[in-house]
Design brief:
503 residues; 25 helices; globular
Length: 503
Amino acid sequence: MIASMRQPSAIEAPSTTEAPKTIAREWLILALALSMAAGMWFFSQWVMAPAERAYYAAKGQPMDVGDLYPRWYGARELLLRHRNPYSLEVSREIQVAYYGHPLDIAGADRGRDEQRFAYPVYVVFFLAPTIDLPFSRAQAGVRWALAFLAAASVLLWLRALRWRPPALVTVALIALTVSSPPMVQALRLQQLAVLVAFLLAGCMALLSRGRLFWAGCLLACATVKPQLALMPVLWFLIWATGDWKERRRLALGFAAALGLLVAAGEAILPAWLPEFVRGLIAYGHYAKVSSLLDLYLMPGMAKPVAAVLLGGILILCLRWRKTPAQHPGFFFRMALVLTAVVIALPVLPPFNQVLLLPGLLGLISMWSTLWNRGGPVRAASCVGAALLPSSWLLASVLAVLHMAAPRVALGSTWTWPFLISFLIPPIVMGLLLAVLQDIPDPRPSSPTQLNKLRAEVKELRQSFRLRSADRAFTVNNFRSNSFRPKYVPEIFLGQTARFHQML
């Protein structure tokens, strides 16, 4: 089954006899990707940016400071002037930068975004290199740094997926990722969701290489945005209990790094945790952030459905906790958890959809398998394949219209490429569930089979001791279909160390 799932996708080179056609196809893919990326970024600079400035001006927000400013200003005041970033005075100063005056929360400004410092205090350590810079330079530097992290996250997710597309296709994937509507919005706003996605990608890449302690450290750093990191943290901790003797290093790394961050935050701002909790509760009232389920469902149904969905995901996590990190299903299960975060949690803004990247990469790598499923799976794949590039194409069309008639007002059409992105997550979740149905459980399905497997491993170890000179021959025989019983999962092939641990 796994062998059939590792079929090359439509964009991988099939054979040397088709090499010229394959190279031409790869160059074509790269050219299309770069053209779409250029269209999206031209749209972002010449269509979306003026429309956003007009939108902010209509709201009485004269300064385009993005989402970085409250975090940057709070870090600057704490590290340089030892002021409490959660204090009312600092919040008022941030509001002056946004709105030109402090908000009258009890009066005319009731219900407006108060723009408080609403992150864990240890986020200041990540922003510390920028606090000595003017905000305009800090803003530009953070934007370029996040773009670099977005490109690097593609490579890390590919490593975790164990998929090696051709170099030209990899460049195309990076170009499309950096120019995707969620990423464009995230970079324009300097959203730290990109940093969280990068840290989770690094965590997965380290897990695939067996470096559990450092993976736990990166997971702890990802908690700078708790609403995005909560479900991945729960999944990884549940997974660690599936083989605690081997995986406890993940939990130890997470606890050590998180404890260090919390302690360092306590050193620079004593008793910060209660203030952060109060600020987080207040954020839930004034930000009024909803979930994608609020768009899909009738009023009042989103929260119960979200609770059922997240509860179901946690139950599946308990069922999957024994999955080895090297098993193909481990990546897709992590992608499903991140997709559930995007759909069910109150993270509606499109920039949070950067968490869909692993799911999209996994589905692209499994395109041939999805197509061969036929029926609803093939239909959903076709719908997703049609919707996914439509944001780039629509943005390019709007950019061309702007160039042809720059004085013609496009109205609210600048939001259309981003509205399309709201249709993608449910399709990604459905296709990920379809893929996971085809991935077999890496564990033997019954105690009898487990005992047989242990006996064969014991026999194999004895043969290693008796015939050390023929060890390679023995391993090759074990890998052959004639020697291996059908119940031995293919994920265990070539991993005799795992067999030894089972004994």
